[in-house]
Amino acid sequence: MNVLSDNFAAFREGFLGTVELTALSALLALVLGTLIAAFRVSPVPALRIFGTTWVTLLRNTPLVLLFLAVTLGLPALGLKGWDSFWLAVMALGCYTSAFICEAIRSGINAVPVGQAEAARSLGMTFNQSLGEIVLPQAARTAVPPIGSLLIALAKNTAIASGFNVTELGSLQKTLNADAGYNIYVIFLWIAICYIIITFAISGLFRLLENRLAVSR
Question: Which residues of the chain have pLDDT under 70?
């Protein structure tokens, strides 16, 4: 218990860093994932090709390699001055967006085709029918898998500790190597912190799922 009490400020900073990194990465992933899903079902061939390429590349690229590409590749291209935290948000958000895109696309495919056809018969454009008719119905189907993906995102933030980002994963080096605390006790408290975060995400999406559920 003294590991936590003696280093409460460090644990609090790491916990809040993980929460902030998860929240911002999730926001980016949800926005990009929804946009790419719209591209994938778009009637415009170029957008469909872009969406398919985005999903294929990111889903088949290891996250660590994507971190390296962002943290080392962007400065090499002249995009310098980015904080390591925001580079981590970019890597995590883009990576997760590919999986969220497929969850949303599955939800879109679950909506009866007649819904979109009825919208078109009323003179609605593709964007209008997608945004006002299809996506709201697809959300009911997509909520559970998106919740699971964001839980995975919260755990993936641990990779950011290897790229100079202050979060829960970085506590291991600080407390074990520098302060000499027992590594197993450190990992136990870090695991408890991750459990709190993932349980919070799970509870939030369970409430959202119940709120969006169709009465039967």
Answer: 1-7, 81, 174, 176-181, 213-216
Residue 79 φ then ψ, to 5°: -90, 75
CA–CA dist 97, 100 (Å, integer): 5
43-62 pLDDT, tens digit per residue, is: 889 999 999 999 999 999 99
**CB atoms closer than 10 angstroms to residue 174:** 16
Buried b (16+ CB within 10 A) or exposed e, 153-171: bbebbbbbbebebbbbbbb
> pTM to 2 decimals?
0.87
Give the integer Cα–Cα distance in Å for 188 and 200. Answer: 19
Q: Which of 103, 91, 90, 86 is nearest to 34 (CA)?
A: 103
Gap between the Cα atoms of 75 and 184, Å rounded: 37
Q: How far apart are CA 66 and CA 83, in angstroms?
A: 16
